[in-house]
Design goal:
The protein contains 2 helices and 4 strands. Helices cover about 30% and strands about 20% of the residues. The chain is α+β, with helices and mostly antiparallel strands and about 80 residues long.
Length: about 80
C-alpha cells in the first residue's frame, strides 16, 4: 500500500536554517502504530533523500531531537 508524505514546514525551516539552503523541502510520513514505518523525504535542488525514522538516533518524546537526528543522518 502506498504511503503519502505530507509537507513539513517545521522540518523544512529547521533544515533550511541549519544548512543555509533555501532550496530544500521536507516531507514526513508518521505511522502512529509503528515508528519504524515512519520516514522523511528531503527534496533538494538536485536530489531526493529518503530517511527512515529507524535510521535516526533520537529521543521519541522530543520532536526537535528527531529533526536534529535527521540533519545528522543526511549531513554528518
Amino acid at each position: 500500500m502506498p504511503k503519502y508524505a505530507n509537507a513539513s514546514a517545521e522540518a523544512t525551516a529547521f533544515l533550511s536554517e541549519r544548512t543555509g539552503s533555501s532550496q530544500l523541502e521536507c516531507f514526513t510520513y508518521i505511522d502512529p502504530e509503528q515508528a519504524d514505518n515512519s520516514f522523511f523525504i528531503v527534496k533538494t535542488s538536485n536530489k531526493v533523500i529518503h530517511v527512515s525514522f529507524a535510521e535516526i538516533n533520537f529521543d521519541p518524546t522530543n520532536y526537535r531531537s528527531l529533526l536534529e537526528g535527521l540533519y545528522r543522518a543526511i549531513y554528518e
